[in-house]
Amino acid sequence: MTDPIADFLTRIRNAIIARKAQTQAPASKIKAKIAEILQQEGYIAGFAVNETGPQGTITVNLRYDGQHRSAIEGVRRVSTPGQRTYVNRDSIPKVRSGLGVAILTTSRGIMTDREARKQGLGGEVICEVW
To answer: Yes or no: is domain 4-62 CATH 3.30.1370.30?
Structure first.
């Protein structure tokens, strides 16, 4: 697999379309950090990392409202292995005029676009969620 982050985001997107309560993916530290940010921003209900096996799995519990609408309307992978997308601190994108969140990897770790603007950091834009 050439892009495990895109695979993780696609598993979440497919589970939302199929109205599943949770989904599983192979675990890694970056996927766990992305899931942690999604939980902090209120897009998922929670996640758990299972360390059994050679790589382990990450289980993401999806969040729906009373009418069975997902908290996540869309997910888009921005920076791919074939075309990396870097931004400086002045050109960090606002997703849906600030209603969504962009997840960046910076020199101080993985964070949201708001945190990166506050700290004055640029970096690689991993994905956008709205």
So the answer is: yes
Specify the DSSP element, H or E, that contains 24. Answer: strand 22-26
Please, what is the Cα angle at 45 between 57 and 64, to 5 degrees?
Answer: 120
Q: Are 14 and 60 in contact (CB under 8 A)?
A: no
Helix axes 4-17, 29-40, angle to 10 degrees: 40
> Which stretches of the chain score pLDDT less than 70?
none
Extents of the domains making up the chain: 4-62, 75-129
Question: Looking at residue 98, what DSSP letter applies?
Answer: G
Task: Report the alpha-carbon distance of residue 91 to residue 47 in Å, rounded.
Answer: 31
Q: What is the CATH number of domain 75-129?
A: 3.30.1490.10
Q: What is the predicted pLDDT for the residue at 36?
A: 98
Task: Name the pairing type of β-strands 44-50 and 109-112.
Answer: unpaired
Residues 6 or more apart whose CB falls under 8 angstroms from that of 10 comprise: none
Asked if 55 and 26 count as a contact pair (C-beta separation under 8 A), the reply is yes
